[in-house]
Automatic annotation (TrEMBL):
Pfam families registered for this protein in UniProt: HTH_3
Protein name (database record): HTH cro/C1-type domain-containing protein
Taxonomic source organism: Lactobacillus amylovorus subsp. animalium
Residue stretches making up the HTH cro/C1-type domain: 8-59
Region of interest (Disordered), residue spans: 59-85
Domain of life: Bacteria
C-alpha cells in the first residue's frame, strides 16, 4: 500500500529504519509493517507524518509534495531542538546547517537581538 511505500521512502531518506519510525511514532510493535495488508488509521498516519516531517496527504498519496503544510492554529516556527528530520523544498537539511542556525540563534539570544513572538 502507498502509505507503507512512502513511509519506507522517507525513512530511508532520513537514514531511519521502519522500526525506528514505528517506535518514535509511539505505535504498537510492527504496526507499520502491518500496513502491507491493512490500511493505517488516521492517528497512526498523523504520528508517522510528524516523525518524518511530512503530511498525511503525502503518505496517503494525495500529493507528491512531502513538505508539510501548517494547519490553522499550528505555529509556523520550527523547533530546532527536537530530534526529527528537516527538509527544505524536499531536500534533507544536514545537521551541520541546523547547528549553524542553532549557534546563530544562541548568539542573538545572548546579545538580546532575538525577537520572540
Amino acid at each position: 500500500m502507498i502509505e507503507l511505500e512512502r513511509t519506507k521512502e522517507l525513512a530511508k531518506k532520513y537514514k531511519m529504519n521502519l522500526r525506528e519510525v514505528n517506535d518514535k511514532a509511539g505505535l504498537g510493535t510492527n504496526s507499520i509493517y502491518n500496513w502491507k495488508n491493512k490500511r493505517p488509521g488516521g492517528d497512526a498516519l498523523e504520528a508517522v507524518a510528524e516523525v518524518l516531517n511530512t503530511s498525511i496527504d503525502y503518505l496517503k498519496g494525495k500529493t507528491d509534495d512531502p513538505t508539510p503544510i501548517p494547519t490553522k492554529g499550528q505555529p509556523t516556527s520550527i523547533p530546532l531542538d527536537e530530534e526529527k528530520p528537516y527538509s527544505y523544498h524536499g531536500y534533507n537539511v544536514p545537521e551541520r546547517y541546523l547547528n549553524m542556525i542553532r549557534g546563530l540563534m544562541e548568539d542573538d539570544i545572548k546579545e538580546g537581538r532575538a525577537d520572540k513572538k
